């Protein structure tokens, strides 16, 4: 799951506060809940919650699918990349389009 990778990357960068957005209301609700996660993805979601405790502040927010255009463009672009690719300061051309 991308959110787990993103959190690990944020820790590697030394970030203390992160805001994560996703278009799955079920996943975001589960991540914001203190209840046991009795779903097929439960262990992964519990792992994400455990990693979240390593940050001073973590926000999980739901956004509508149509508002997640950048994530979908990155996912389409990912099909062409074999190694890790990171943009730190400049927005890639395919996102600006």
TrEMBL record:
Transmembrane segments: none annotated. Gene3D superfamilies: Ribonuclease H-like superfamily/Ribonuclease H. Residues 2-77 form the RNase H type-1 domain. GO terms for molecular function: nucleic acid binding; RNA-DNA hybrid ribonuclease activity. Pfam families: RVT_3 (PF13456). This is RNase H type-1 domain-containing protein.
């Amino acid at each position: 799951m991308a959110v787990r990778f993103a959190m690990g990357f944020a820790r590697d960068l030394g970030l203390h506060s992160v805001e994560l957005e996703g278009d799955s209301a079920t996943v975001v609700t589960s991540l914001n809940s203190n209840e046991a996660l009795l779903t097929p993805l439960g262990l992964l979601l519990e792992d994400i919650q455990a990693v979240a405790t390593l940050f001073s502040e973590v926000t999980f927010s739901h956004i509508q699918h149509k508002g997640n255009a950048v994530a979908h463009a990155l996912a389409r672009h990912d099909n062409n990349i074999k190694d890790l690719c990171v943009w730190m300061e400049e927005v890639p051309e395919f996102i600006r389009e």
